[in-house]
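worker-3 :: picked DinB-like domain-containing protein
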Amino acid sequence: MHALLDIAVRVLAQLEGVLNGIDASQYTRISAQPPHSSISKHVRHLLDRFEMVLGALSRPYDPSRPLDLDNVPKDRAVQFDLDAAKRKLGALIRETESIAERERSGGDSVLQRSTSVAIHAHADIAGDAPVIVNSTLARELHFVIVHAIHHYALIRVIVEGEMGIAVSEEFGRGWTTQRRDSKL
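worker-3 :: tokens ->
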């Protein structure tokens, strides 16, 4: 299962490339396109979720503490400070590499065991009680990777479409799309 961690490292590294190609004002600039977001808001959202899943992979899972998608701590420094975002991104890449190395060296394989987790999330704005979904840490890591690619597509619209800055060909494009396009 370390392959999934290796993919996470590559996906996070794509973001690192984009962040290294923009300045602080571009990072926090509000997009002209609805919903008038910013690169920084997308980055903060993604890094918070990667941090939650990687944290669960880094320590023994406690079933009495489900992953709560509605109460992910928001790192506001990442949202307003490009350097803070780069530092956090670098730390998450190193943490992911460390977990992958532990998996490769035969250490405790949380992903291989498909550790079950409970996910709490509200399904709609009116709901008072969270929906509880059973999942695995491997599935949640896969989801956060795919979720990142979705947000990268939105970031790409801002960076390329509004700022005129080129990004890598794979940034914001899913693997199946890339495979299909390579066969054309």
